[in-house]
Amino acid sequence: MDQQWRNRAASAETAIATRHLSKLWGLPGTQLGVVAWLPTRKDSTFATWHYWWQAHLLDTLVDAQVRDPSPSRVEKIKRQIRGHRMRNNGCWTNSYYDDMAWLALALERSGRLAGVANPKALATLSGELVNSWSPEAGGGIPWRKKEQFFNAPANGPAGIFLARYGNVVRAQQMADWIDTTLIDPETHLVFDGIRDGSLVRAQYTYCQGVVVGLETELAVRTGDPRHAARARRLIAAVAEHMAPAGVLKGAGGGDGGLFAGITARYLALAATDLPGDSAEDTAARDAARGIVLASARAAWDNRADVNGLPLFSAFWDRMAQVPQADGARGGTANGAVFESSSAERDLSVQISGWMLMEAAAKVSTVSAG
Q1: Whose CA is closest to 46, among 88, 90, 78?
Q2: 9, 143, 234 from 282: Cα distances, Å
Q3: Cα separation of 213 and 265, whole Å?
Q4: 94, 114, 165, 348 - which has most CB atoms within 10 Å?
Q5: How far is CA 258 from CA 251, 313, 317, in A?
Q6: Could you read off the pLDDT tens digit of each residue along the chain, which spans 369 residues?
Q7: What letter does residue 47 receive in the DSSP assignment?
Q8: Contact present, 55 and 77 (Cβ < 8 Å)
Q9: Could you give the angle at which helices 152-165 and 119-131 cross, rounded to 10 degrees?
């Protein structure tokens, strides 16, 4: 692993810990990420907390543990899991299947890679994701309970988790549904989803990322050539349409702050794990690695330096702006979190930058070609 990228990932981790990590309600043995920096009292007391942002914080703590194993980080992982459950009213589930899929992924990796196992949580979340499968209604699994919106950001991470959890058959069904229903025949990018039978044609970076991850995971676990072929096709589409000059497009703050970081995570998975010895396989892995590293170089070069620690931009090809104390905080509506007046204030944006640095550290171990 390249020492420069290891160092940058460690700096990003320290920045998150310094600015965002705090005990939940002052309780010992707990931790969550404060959703904004500089925070309001509402932020600091976790009146606002955003379930799926915290799941990605946990997942990135696991990345850091893989990079640099440490007993103290294992304790942070345990505190994060404990804080998440306590803030979520003592349970693991909520009304959003995409949220639950992100947490399931993070908890599965926490057990497998950091030794912090939560088998009851995984069983509960697996049950939610398996039982929400709705082919009779046009799905896929829905985005949210009691809705007919079947989208890639729910089915992609759910499929990755279920493949890792042992339900490869359902994961393949999810991948096949996405490939049949949501692939743009012109660009080969992934559309957002199907709402009440109508195609939602928006194309977000993280839709591409989770499908690259799902097809890579299935290519590794099944050996079925259709999965590697789909992953190769989608990596090429991302390189052509979503990474100008090799740098992944940003989507602002709020929920969008996480989109590019998620994409980098699963491009890194493809760069290291996508199987195959053909020229096409090698080219796909090299392309995925190249996007991760170009994005990471841009994000690092455009960071702001605050007390010696990086503050990442919501758009990795633009300079970061240091937020001011009087700026407006992002609000929520219909299950979505909007960006603050300064997107760099949002925890999502900073987790995404950290996630990118961890992805760069991971792919730096792999030689091109």
Answers
A1: 88
A2: 26, 34, 14
A3: 8
A4: 348
A5: 8, 12, 16
A6: 599 999 999 999 999 999 999 999 999 999 999 999 999 999 999 999 999 999 999 999 999 999 999 999 999 999 999 999 999 999 999 999 999 999 999 999 999 999 999 999 999 999 999 999 999 999 999 999 999 999 999 999 999 999 999 999 999 999 999 999 999 999 999 999 999 999 999 999 999 999 999 999 999 999 999 999 999 999 999 999 999 999 999 999 999 999 999 999 999 999 999 999 999 999 999 999 999 999 999 999 999 999 999 999 999 999 999 998 777 778 888 889 999 989 999 999 999 999 999 999 999 988 777
A7: S
A8: no
A9: 130
Beta strand spans in 273-329 (E): 304-306, 309-311
Both ends of the chain: CA-CA distance in Å? Answer: 17
CA pseudo-torsion sign 343, 213, 169, 124: negative
Tokens of 187: 């660009």
Decide: helix, strand or coil at residue 341.
Answer: coil
Q: How far is CA 11 from the centre of its chain?
A: 19
Place of tokens 């969008």: 256
| Tokens (6 digits) for 151 | 């989208």
Sheet holding 149-151, edge to edge: 149-151, 193-195, 198-200
Could you tell me the domains of the chain? 3-363 (1.50.10.20)
As a whole number of angstroms, the distance between CA 295 and CA 273 comes to: 20
Helix (H) or strand (E) holding 350: helix 347-363
Is the separation of the CB atoms in 57 and 347 below 8 Å? yes
Query: Rounded to whole angstroms, how far apart are CA atoms 256 and 250?
Result: 8
The Cβ of residue 366 has, within 10 Å, a number of other Cβ atoms equal to 16
| Alpha helix ranges (H) inside 115-258 | 119-131, 152-165, 168-181, 205-222, 225-241
Tell me how far apart the alpha carbons of residues 366 and 136 are, in angstroms, rounded to a whole number.
43
* pTM of the predicted model over 0.85: yes
* Residue 268 tokens, joined: 């890194």
Integer CA distances (angstroms), 364 to 23, 289, 290, in order: 34, 8, 10
Record the tokens describing residue 172, joined without a space: 């393949």
